[in-house]
Amino acid sequence: MRRDQIRVMALAAGLVVLSGLVSPRLPERRAAAIHAVSGAVLAAATRTRVGVRPPALTQGVRAGASAAAVVTGAVATAGAVPAVRSAMAARELPDAPARWLLVRIPFGTVWAEEVAYRGALGQLGAQAFGPTRGRVLQAVAFGLSHIADARAAGEPVAGTVVVTGVAGWVFALLAERSGSLVAPMLAHLAVNESGALAALAVQRRRNR
Known about the structure:
InterPro entries: Rce1/LyrA-like_dom, UCP026622_CAAX_protease. The chain has one domain.
């Protein structure tokens, strides 16, 4: 294995370990800021191409907005299924919903994860292993990074890893085809925000 490949594998392992061992121990009120800053530092250190200038930005916004519309529609449709509503009602939600929606999700989760996995790991992985295997690597790492979250929420670990891994693959395709991380960021944001808003709405309805 070449040196660049070893470095990429080490980065993937490091991201998974950090997600599983370090992130859960961070102070909740500071976690979002720490994640956001860490993502920015990693992007700068690896010279990640974020794609925030035209024409990449324009393409990213178009692709991301389209994906976000599909995701939002899917979540709205799924909310009509009784089993899904029950799962939303049983979901443990943060005490400060506004902070969750406006800070933790967009900056502590979406920004941090996209620049780390689709940005740094995805781009370095493509250079070291080729586009397809690099995409697989970041998708697998992304899936494994959610093991701690699944355990904390009492959700099936294997299912969570598979679902988030597939999501990582799709997000990577959006980034590659648009040339901008804005595309997967918008799609990722739609997934998390629509799910959060749906759960909040279901629980408030039931409480009434």
